[in-house]
Amino acid sequence: MVHLNILSGLFALASIATAQCGSGTPDATVTGSGNSFTAKKGSSNVYSGSDYHAAIQAALDSISSGQRVAVIASGSIGTNTISIGSGKVFEGCGTINVGNKAGRGAIESLNTVGAQIPYLTMTGNPYFGLRFYGTRNLVLGKITFNLSGGLAIRFDRDQAANSDVKMDVISCTGASSHCVETWNISGLKINQVIAKNVGESGLLLQKTTNAEVGLVDGNNVGAGTGYATLRFANENGHNNGNYNINIRINKVVSRGGGRGIFCVSQSGAVQIESVDLASNGNNAILIENCYNVKIVGGTVDGGGEVRLSARSEFANNKDISITLKVDNNTVRESPCGDNTTFNISGNAKKNIC
Ligand SMILES: *[C@@H]1O[C@H](CO)[C@@H](O)[C@H](O)[C@H]1NC(C)=O
Ligand SMILES: *[C@@H]1O[C@H](CO)[C@@H](O)[C@H](O)[C@H]1NC(C)=O
Ligand SMILES: *[C@@H]1O[C@H](CO)[C@@H](O)[C@H](O)[C@H]1NC(C)=O
Ligand SMILES: *[C@@H]1O[C@H](CO)[C@@H](O)[C@H](O)[C@H]1NC(C)=O
Ligand SMILES: *[C@@H]1O[C@H](CO)[C@@H](O)[C@H](O)[C@H]1NC(C)=O
């Protein structure tokens, strides 16, 4: 439970974030509506005109590291990208509607140190809503995506790695892909990921180490797919050549959708304290070629099988330990894993080694 107290204290540390979006005296602001926007740095105009994106970028470009922009206005940036530099604090207080530009984020912070987005509400169908790589000490606060498609938050795979990323509460509806997809992060703390009516994953961790997550809550996530409310893939958790536990998840809730929890492709090193999974359309839990996965407690009611399996391309499951109450479902281990420990209560059928 110690790590929970750490999590709840985390966001007090973000020094510049305010108690409410835009409160206090932001160093720069974007105001206006329709086709008339004004960006100011202090009392000086840095943009006046009809282009919402240009107003926002002018405000960001006018501040220096350690300063804050509050975008009070709502509007559409089209297929443009907002770029946040090192140490800059971006508060999206209005609703930022975005377009879809292949391979790009509507908002990006690339190769930066200490960028912060304490507040943001985004609508639209972005390729990536937020795109990051090469970040250090990135802080995301209360971020709400009400999308009609796209992928909400993406850390790129084939770019510089990231370290010490913090997120408070990330909420997504309507993404056709993932709510949060990471690659190559060392040091990740997330308070909550809340995903509803999302096409692929709620939280997808890949090549990420030293992660602490409070809650992942998925409702109708990944329906008709093999994705999951919480998915670990591509050697997630593998750290310095071993699978010692370094991924800690406090709670996973999932209803309907595709899978509840899915660990695949040589991931693991994870301890999940508690799960509450019901009526998942695919496996409530699937663990496939994973190493050192511990589920400490919780319930599964109905849905697809709780399944330990293996593909021949990678080594079999190893050191999987599962304590769960499973009702109206089956727990199946096939093939037999190496050093599996089950403690299953409830009315589930058990087909285990
Ligand atoms: C999300 O956006 C849609 C329109 O795109 C709107 O009808 C709905 O009320 C919004 N939902 C929330 C929770 O803001
Ligand atoms: C990020 O992960 C990918 C996939 O494993 C890997 O190819 C790449 O080298 C990594 N990048 C860095 C900078 O570590
Ligand atoms: C079996 O796995 C548990 C973790 O579930 C681990 O603590 C133990 O050391 C493993 N035993 C062997 C013999 O590897
Ligand atoms: C699921 O299992 C519980 C506990 O045994 C039982 O009370 C409930 O009726 C079952 N629900 C269904 C839909 O079978
Ligand atoms: C098995 O799980 C129950 C909770 O359902 C717990 O009380 C018990 O201590 C567990 N047994 C072992 C050997 O871990």
TrEMBL record:
User: Which keywords does this chain's UniProt record carry?
Assistant: Signal
What's the superkingdom here?
Eukaryota
According to the record, the signal peptide region is 1-19
Name of the protein: Right handed beta helix domain-containing protein
* Lineage, uppermost ranks: Eukaryota, Fungi, Dikarya, Ascomycota, Pezizomycotina
